[in-house]
Amino acid sequence: MSRLPALSRAQARRATLVAQGFRDPRHTVPTMRTFTRTLARTAVLQIDSVNVLQRAHYMPLFSRMGPYDTDLLRRAAEDRPRRIVEYWAHVAAFMPVELWPHMQHRMRRYREQGHEWMGLPERQELVTSLMAEITARGAATPRDLDDGLPRTKENWGWNWSETKKTLEYLFLAGRLAVAGRNQQFERLYDLPERVVPPALLAAPTPTDEQAWRELVRRAATALGVATEHSLRDYFRMRPAEAHSAVTDLVDSGELLEVRVEGEPRRAFLHRDTALPRKVDARALLSPFDPLVWERARTEHLFGFRYRIEIYTPAHKRVHGYYVLPFLLGDRIVARVDLKADRRTGRLQVLGSFAEQDAPEHTAVELAAELLALAGWLDLGGVDVHPRGDLAPRLAVASAGLVPLTVR
Fold it and tell me: How far, in Å, are 71, 374, 396 from residue 67 at the CA level?
């Protein structure tokens, strides 16, 4: 039996960074073409409602493109021809609109198996009523359709109305799509034929096996090199689905089996993945960035242990509420707890922490990236709080720098 090609941890890390778009040149003024190129790298943009800094789906674009006009994302999601559409692709996420047919197997599963929310006869009646109303009136939020019905508060969490629960089921089942979001970040549900381009709706539905292969192919392209578990996790596929697709793509030569230093499981390299000797990146990473959302993979490739502490009580947090890793070169060298204080117009660095082997110029590079972030968020400057071992050097490096505001 021949020996498998071997990659060092550093090679695997750099391959992933290139695949994720961190070697692409930043344009002075990012355009829709820049956006499209960047989305092709990440394949999905996870959506999250936390807005202490900036909503999650905007941040990976900033990390790769630099300061950009956020209206690019709105136009891609809402203007014709739509380039992206919401679906449960990783979790709630924007995905390239051409993946809509490849999610039909997932939508069908929801339709065939039903959902725990759909067990009562009155909910079946609500489905008919809501579909008729949306057909007649167009895109609407649950609040529009339930006419402000009170939501119970007996349980912690979203406390969704019956209307919201039913619309979410119809969205998962593909009977409704998301036309956009309102100013309160509520989904506007509409018929798929008014959201998804007609050519995609009319296209033949891929077989399940074809869909699985396309999703794993996109995951492999976005990850560069990955285990089967990581390929499966990217689009939250079932184990059997991912295994079937990986086997097919290995047999066709599109995926190459390799060994990665320190990784006991089989790994797979996409045949088009670049293996550079150097990656000179500099970026702040959202907690929901696809580069770091699989925590075990992040720890293996970068030696960086990362946990989201949003739901941890304040007195038990180690690093802070909304903590962003800082990528420099091909390593994650620091992390910062950030808050956009829109009342004072300042970016608050509530805590800043260096990794053990962070280079000497970490504070200077981080200060420059924080100032770029502040300018993009239309904030007048950066305030560095004294918490964290990196804070003294970061405060000195940040002094006197003035952000450029993106308008």
Answer: 12, 10, 24
Per residue in 297-346, pLDDT (tens digit) is 999 999 999 999 998 999 999 999 999 999 999 999 999 999 999 999 99
Decide: helix, strand or coil at residue 224. Answer: coil
Higher pLDDT, 109 or 119: 109
Closest CA to 258 of 273, 245, 248: 273
Structure tokens at 75: 């136009």
Check: pTM over 0.85? Answer yes or no: yes
- 3-class DSSP assignment, residue 315: helix
Q: How confident is the model at residue 120 (pLDDT cuts 50, 70, 90)?
A: low
Residues 48-85: tens digit of each pLDDT: 989 999 999 999 999 999 999 999 999 999 998 899 99
CB 172 within 8 A of CB 88: yes
What pLDDT, on the 0 to 100 scale, is given for residue 216?
98
> Please, which contacts does 27-33 make with residues 24 or more away whose CB atoms are closer than 8 Å?
27/65, 27/66, 30/65, 30/66, 30/67, 30/68, 30/69, 30/72, 31/72, 32/72, 32/75, 32/76, 32/83
| DSSP-based helix, strand, coil % in the chain, nearest 5 | 40, 15, 40
Length of the chain: 407
* Residue 150 reports pLDDT greater than 60: no
